[in-house]
Amino acid sequence: MSTLDRYYNYIDGAWQGADNWMEILDPATDEPYAEIAEASTEDADAAMAAARRCVKAGALSSVRPAQRVTWLLAIAEEIKALTEEAALVLCRENGKPLDVARGEFEESARYFEYYAGMADKIEGTSIPLGDDYIDFTSYEPLGVSVQIVPWNFPPSICARSLAPALAAGNAVIVKSPEVSPLAMTFLMMACERAGLPRGAVNLLCGKGSVVGSHLVKHRDANQVVFTGSVPTGQRILRDAAERATPSVMELGGKSAGIVHAEADIEQVIDSVKNGIFFNAGQVCSAMSRLLVHRSRYEEVVTRARELAEGLTIGPGVDNHDLTPLVSRDQLEQVESMCRRAIEAGATCVTGGERVSDTSGYFMRPTLITGAAVDSAIFQEEVFGPVLVLHPFDTEEEAIELANGTEFGLVAGVFDTQLDRALRTARRLRGGQVFVNEWFAGGVETPFGGVGLSGFGREKGQEALYSYVQTRNIAVRIKSA
Ligand code: NAD
């Protein structure tokens, strides 16, 4: 019998174990930290049946919307109460700094507060058709929303989709990632303590190719919300197509920041620190490329190098600047992409390899220059602390380089000349463009991609409408 702490699936309002348990490693030490029940397809069927019962009973959708406001606000308060305990678990299973883990739970609570404010304002319209008709639209929940979550920000990405789905009156089944699934269980605890009806939320941890795929193909799934990599998203879209199940796809990115000649370099360097080294670069909207006007290129490379070499590297519990990557696989993948870039002729200004004297999954902060525009390191997502820098001569060239990948998640512009900054921002491909601060925005601002970065929007008022369907009722009135 294992002595590790055990975490459970949450199905139909109850915590459930399993025949198989998945071991979760601590990325800072490579040692077992805890284990979690591995859900089976039978568990997925049980969760689906519970969610379907909740929908059929109208437990969320038929109540006065003010009741959903109360539930969501209560969930936010319970998350806040659990934050200290939950953040430590997230830090240990994921590797991220403890303060970042805390921030993630604060953001999770904020999603519930934000969408609580909208739960009683999902109003339809009345459409004039003359005296012989009354016509109106209403926004109605979809039913059962299946939500598949990646490992980089498990609680906050879960909250990002769960909160608007519940606000709109849907029941939800969440599939947590195989790596870093533990901290998400605290969100379910918060839902349980807030008194949400049975079956309204369910959490399953299991293999994507088994439980995830089973949920996506399930005849009772009314929606699939997927956040993760492009290849998995494409597979899920093919599966969802079998039943024409509506989907939201939040996929990867290869986002570029453009540094114009008159940019404020302090703002640029602050944004490099946050944009590519935050969460060890494991961020879909990371600033993975920096395109710099040739007149400032050497200066920016030098400053970025000073920054990278000055970062502290160590375990998340000690709040280091750069903490381990989530898994050995991820470390090997990032290191191999750097190696291939150098073999293809690029220069590694600093980093490019793992920290060798530790069993943890630590990657050195890395800067790459001289990469060919059509090379993998310039075109493909690395998902690690690796920044590619490249010079440009004209505004037109910068925009072409920034837009020259198949992705389109976010982009950024650094400039003190407002006209040029806004002109550039309008032409960048992506769902969100940051000006003079990478990751500006918040739970209030819509987020999502174009191209291989996906479709549909999360966050902000707009995301609520990803979780409803429009019904029109047209009434013929008899003449007097
Ligand atoms: P992944 O695609 O490997 O896995 C994501 C989830 O999908 C996991 O829960 C996994 O179990 C599940 N899954 C795998 N195969 C499945 C299948 N056939 N059917 C159903 N579910 C399946 O992604 P990851 O490695 O966990 O996360 C990293 C990726 O996520 C990066 O590409 C990153 O850019 C992307 N991401 C995007 C956003 C965004 O908002 N756009 C946010 C965070 C991460």
Automatic annotation (TrEMBL):
<dbReference type="GO" id="GO:0016620">
    <property type="term" value="F:oxidoreductase activity, acting on the aldehyde or oxo group of donors, NAD or NADP as acceptor"/>
</dbReference>
<keyword id="KW-0560">Oxidoreductase</keyword>
<dbReference type="InterPro" id="IPR016160">
    <property type="entry name" value="Ald_DH_CS_CYS"/>
</dbReference>
<comment type="similarity">
    <text>Belongs to the aldehyde dehydrogenase family.</text>
</comment>
<dbReference type="InterPro" id="IPR016163">
    <property type="entry name" value="Ald_DH_C"/>
</dbReference>
<dbReference type="Pfam" id="PF00171">
    <property type="entry name" value="Aldedh"/>
</dbReference>
<dbReference type="InterPro" id="IPR029510">
    <property type="entry name" value="Ald_DH_CS_GLU"/>
</dbReference>
<protein>
    <submittedName>
        <fullName>Aldehyde dehydrogenase</fullName>
    </submittedName>
</protein>
<dbReference type="InterPro" id="IPR016162">
    <property type="entry name" value="Ald_DH_N"/>
</dbReference>
<dbReference type="InterPro" id="IPR016161">
    <property type="entry name" value="Ald_DH/histidinol_DH"/>
</dbReference>
<feature type="domain" description="Aldehyde dehydrogenase">
    <location>
        <begin position="20"/>
        <end position="472"/>
    </location>
</feature>
<dbReference type="InterPro" id="IPR015590">
    <property type="entry name" value="Aldehyde_DH_dom"/>
</dbReference>
<feature type="active site">
    <location>
        <position position="250"/>
    </location>
</feature>
